[in-house]
Specification:
Length: 262
C-alpha cells in the first residue's frame, strides 16, 4: 500500500492530538470538503493508522490511552473554565444542584464558589466539594460510596442509593462523548454512568457540560436519551449531524462566551 499523502499526514496528526475529531472539524482545518476527509479517513483506516467512527475518526482502540485526571485538567483548561462559567450562570441563586464528577464540572464548581450566594449542592466529586467548602451561603452534601482514583469521584451502590431519595432543581453533568446519530451523551465507566443516571432521575432539569473535542467522539455507554438533557453547554457549535439530533430532542445549545443557539 502507498504511504499517506502529506494531507493525510496532517489529518493523522490532528486526530492523534485530539483522540477523536469530527469530519466537519477536519474538513475546516484542512480546507477541503467533507467527502475528501471521508475518503482520507477510509484510506488511513485501511492502513490501520486511524479508526473510522460515525461522524469522524479516532485513534485505533489498541492505541487509545485513557488520560489521567492531571492530564485531563490541563487539556483545554481555558475552554473548560469558560464552559464552567457559562454553566454556573444557569444556576439561579437559592437553587439546589447536583454536581457530577469531571474536570469541566469542577470548573463550574470553581465558578460557583467565586460567585457565592445561596446554594444547596450535592456532589459525588470530592474536588468540587472542597472547591465550595466554606463559601458563605453554600451548603455542600456528599453521598457515600467508594473513592475512584485521583479525580476524587465517588461511585458504587452506596452513592446511587444516597442520591435516589433526593429531588433537586438542576444537575450539572459531564460526559465523554455523544452518539452523533441521536445526540445521547455517553461515557466509559459503568459505575459513574449509574451515578449520572441517578442524578438525572432526581433533578428537574439537566445540563451537560462538554467541550468541542467530545462532540463526535463515541464512548462505551449511553447515559440517557438526548431528550433528558435540557441544555448542552459547550465552547463551539456542534457538527451538523449532532446539532440536528440535539434540536430534534429539544436540547438547547449554549455556547460559552455567547448567549445561546438552538
Amino acid at each position: 500500500m502507498d504511504a499517506p499523502t502529506p494531507r493525510q499526514e496532517k489529518l493523522l496528526h490532528l486526530v492523534r492530538a485530539r483522540g477523536f475529531a469530527p469530519v466537519e472539524v477536519l474538513a475546516e482545518a484542512l480546507c477541503v470538503s467533507t467527502q475528501t476527509i471521508r475518503r482520507d479517513v477510509a484510506r488511513l483506516t485501511e492502513l490501520r493508522l486511524l479508526q473510522r467512527f460515525h461522524g469522524g475518526a479516532g485513534v485505533p482502540e489498541a492505541d487509545a490511552v485513557r488520560l489521567g485526571w492531571g492530564d485531563k485538567r490541563a487539556l483545554g483548561a481555558e475552554a473548560k473554565a469558560a464552559i464552567g462559567a457559562a454553566a454556573a450562570a444557569l444556576v439561579p441563586d437559592g437553587a439546589s444542584v447536583f454536581l457530577d464528577v469531571g474536570t469541566t464540572v469542577e470548573a463550574a464548581a470553581a465558578a460557583l464558589a467565586r460567585r457565592g450566594g445561596r446554594l444547596r449542592v450535592v456532589t459525588a466529586s470530592l474536588r468540587s466539594a472542597l472547591a465550595l467548602a466554606g463559601v458563605d451561603g453554600v451548603e455542600v452534601m456528599v453521598p457515600g460510596g467508594v473513592l475512584r482514583g485521583a479525580d476524587g469521584s465517588l461511585a458504587g451502590g452506596a452513592t446511587v442509593a444516597g442520591l435516589e431519595p433526593m429531588r433537586v432543581d438542576l444537575a450539572l453533568l459531564g460526559c465523554s462523548g455523544f452518539d452523533a446519530a441521536d445526540g445521547a451523551p455517553m461515557d466509559w465507566d459503568p459505575e459513574k454512568v449509574a451515578v449520572k443516571r441517578a442524578m438525572l432521575a432526581a433533578s428537574r432539569r439537566a445540563v451537560v457540560l462538554a467541550d468541542a473535542a467530545k462532540h463526535g467522539r463515541p464512548a462505551l455507554m449511553r447515559i440517557a436519551p438526548a431528550a433528558a438533557v435540557s441544555v448542552l453547554v459547550t465552547d463551539a457549535p456542534p457538527p451538523a449531524v449532532l446539532a440536528a439530533a440535539l434540536a430534534a430532542a429539544g436540547t438547547e445549545v449554549v455556547l460559552s462566551g455567547q448567549s445561546s443557539a438552538r
